[in-house]
Design brief:
Number of strands of chain A: 0
CATH architecture of chain B: 3-Layer(aba) Sandwich
CATH superfamily of chain B: P-loop containing nucleotide triphosphate hydrolases
Helix content of chain B: 25-40%
Largest interface: A-B, 26 and 34 residues
Structural class of chain A: mainly alpha
Strand order of the largest sheet of chain B: 6-7-8-3-9-10
CATH superfamily of chain A: ABC transporter involved in vitamin B12 uptake, BtuC
CATH architecture of chain A: Orthogonal Bundle
Radius of gyration of chain A: 20 Å
Oligomer: heterodimer
Distance between the termini of chain A: 20 Å
CATH topology of chain A: ABC transporter involved in vitamin B12 uptake, BtuC
Strand content of chain A: under 5%
Largest sheet of chain B: 6 strands, mixed
CATH class of chain A: Mainly Alpha
Chain lengths: 329, 266
């Protein structure tokens, strides 16, 4: 019952978040105007603002936020580590190196696809490297090796970024730092399509793995005895979650905190059954990032705050409160 | 289910000594079979070898006549329940959710649990005496409670064979006895029960046959009264023991001796 109630609340929250997201901005619209524009009516300028400018951005927030939360919950289950999050395998570091290189070499102007592509390539490089190390140590994949390799590869990429930035101009440094902190600004429908093509099938695959993830969360040996093909599930789930993360980073930068905090918050509310945890994490992550983006746009308008800053500012106190409540219960 | 092993040899990478060096065993339907031996004698490795989770260097393991490697993991889980030595619960789950995992091998990826599955879980909860705990978070249970929940999970699989690695090591007398009485009753109904234990007296009282391992090899195998002799046990455990079998049914009672007791007439 509690689970159904939370699902209803989250769906409603997401709907409200999307509506607020298309309503507010530099041109203020009323709720009615926003709704009319969404359904293809109202003034032509309103339709342009809502359908061409705001809606793609809001939908990208939904996909990236949901994807990060889902990937985070998956990593936490497979690595059996509550501190795991989507960037733990060095994915964010790899993506950032790709993006920073493009910005420093001045290639960003040669096409809007260059930056996300470079970031995605960097993320894939990191994933490939980390998986290679973890699987090379035997035929089975050791998640402890994977975790260590991820942390070390991440540190290496951080050093790369520091080096590249140290030889860059001040303006490049600023745009690189802003990219790293994440943003949904300037989203086009193409970005949304790209993210959707990746995120939705990946999310569907992860949802079908909910039971094996439950089993894996209590240990690989026991999971085998409960009929789980452990190596197969580990590889599929990690690869899919990593690609989901890579796609998110490529289009929106390194948005921290969603993938760590949202799954924990859901766990505190409804427990760790992944059949519930995964879909609710997706919904909550989507709503959370959409609302965070709204704040990022409005709080200091016309200046935009990096969305990663907002997710931490809002997420940390909320999570600490939730933690405290669960401790005193 | 008949569990048969022939010349089981296992090698761990980098280890000089083979953890298992030519072990034979044959456990028929309806037998309660105990595997005993000192620390590091290969008891847990034997259990893993029988379940196909450690690779054999040589030898064969067959379950109902079929090589263990030919069973898929989910097929195996529909027939064999296992309580491993330890597991770590990293995230909060309720007892009912944990025991419900025993139904996973019976369910398709997107298939929901039916009344049949709920009945199996209810029954398993009751048999392991954890019905009252069903809404509790497993991370808050005592060691003994968690152990009974894990046994309940294996029961919920509705297995034909049950393999347990030191299932009663953290249980009090009541639950230790209750679990072994239960294992005995299931064996009498036809289930194959293989239990790894340090409890020599428990093995002597409940098991049909005992396998005594010593440094990866079989030191003795047979009915408890044959295997548990002072000579054999002292040689394997390298500690003086006294064995009495004044029990009416001839069940041996093993007592490890204190320093002052050695040399006195047994």
């Amino acid at each position: 019952m509690k689970r159904t109630a939370l699902a209803v609340v989250l769906v409603a929250l997401l709907a409200v978040a999307v509506l607020l997201g298309v309503r507010f901005g530099s041109v203020p619209l009323s709720t009615g105007e926003a709704l009319r524009a969404l359904t293809g009516g109202g003034e032509a300028t309103h339709r342009t603002i809502v359908l061409e400018l705001r809606l793609p951005r809001v939908l990208l927030g939904v996909l990236v936020g949901g994807g990060l939360a889902l990937a985070g919950a998956t990593f936490q289950a497979i690595l059996r580590n509550p501190l795991a999050e989507p960037y733990i395998l060095g994915i964010s570091g790899g993506a950032s190196v790709g993006a920073v290189l493009v910005l420093t070499l001045g290639l960003a102007g040669s096409g809007s696809w260059v930056l996300p592509l470079a970031a995605f390539a960097g993320a894939l490089l990191a994933i490939g490297l980390v998986f290679r190390v973890a699987i090379a140590s035997g035929r089975s994949m050791d998640v402890r090796v994977l975790l260590l390799a991820g942390v070390v590869v991440g540190a290496f990429f951080s050093a790369c970024i520091a080096f590249i930035l140290s030889v860059s101009e001040a303006r490049t440094i600023q745009s690189a730092v802003l990219w790293i902190m994440g943003s949904l600004a300037g989203t086009s429908w193409r970005d949304v399509t790209l993210a959707a093509v990746y995120s939705l099938p990946a999310a569907a695959v992860l949802l079908t793995l909910a039971r094996p993830l439950n089993a894996l969360a209590i240990g690989e040996e026991t999971a085998q005895y409960l009929g789980t093909d452990v190596e197969r599930v580990k590889r599929i789930a990690l690869a899919v979650a990593a690609l989901l993360t890579a796609a998110g980073v490529a289009v929106a930068g390194v948005i921290g905190f969603v993938g760590l905090v949202v799954p924990h918050a859901i766990r505190l509310l409804v427990g760790s059954d992944h059949r519930v945890l995964l879909p609710l994490s997706f919904l909550a992550g989507a709503a959370f990032l959409t609302l965070a983006d709204l704040l990022a746009r409005l709080a200091l308008a016309p200046t935009e705050i990096p969305i990663g800053v907002i997710t931490a500012f809002v997420g940390v106190p909320f999570f600490l409160l939730l933690l405290r409540r669960s401790m005193t219960r | 289910m008949r569990i048969e092993g022939r010349g089981i040899r296992v090698r761990y990478a980098g280890a000089k000594r083979l953890p298992l060096d030519g072990v034979d065993l044959d456990v028929p339907d309806g037998e309660l079979y105990a595997v005993v031996g000192p620390n590091g004698s290969g008891k847990s490795t034997l259990l893993k070898a029988l379940l196909g989770v450690v690779p054999l260097e040589s030898g064969t393991v067959t379950l109902d006549g079929r090589a263990v490697g030919d069973w898929s993991r989910s097929e195996l889980a529909r027939h064999v329940g296992v309580v491993a030595q330890s597991e770590s619960v990293s995230f909060p789950l309720t007892v009912r959710e944990m025991v419900g995992m025993g139904r996973y091998p019976h369910l398709g990826a997107l298939q929901a649990e039916g009344p049949r599955d709920r009945d199996a879980v209810d029954q398993a909860l009751e048999q392991a005496d954890v019905t009252d705990l069903d809404a509790r978070d497993v991370t808050t249970l005592s060691g003994g409670e968690l152990q009974r929940v894990r046994i309940a999970r294996a029961l919920a699989q509705e297995p034909r064979a049950l393999l347990l690695d030191e299932p009663t090591s953290s249980l009090d007398v009541r639950h230790e006895m209750a679990i072994l009485e239960l294992l005995r009753a299931w064996a009498d109904e036809g289930m194959t029960v293989l239990v790894v234990t340090h409890g020599l007296n428990l093995a002597a009282r409940f098991a049909d046959r005992v396998l005594l391992l010593s440094r990866g090899s079989v030191a003795a195998q047979g009915p408890p009264a044959k295997v548990f002799t002072a000579e054999v046990l002292e040689a394997v455990y390298r500690w003086p023991v006294a064995v009495h079998s004044d029990d009416r049914e001839g069940v041996p009672t093993i007592r490890a001796l204190r320093a002052g007791e050695v040399g006195r007439p047994r």
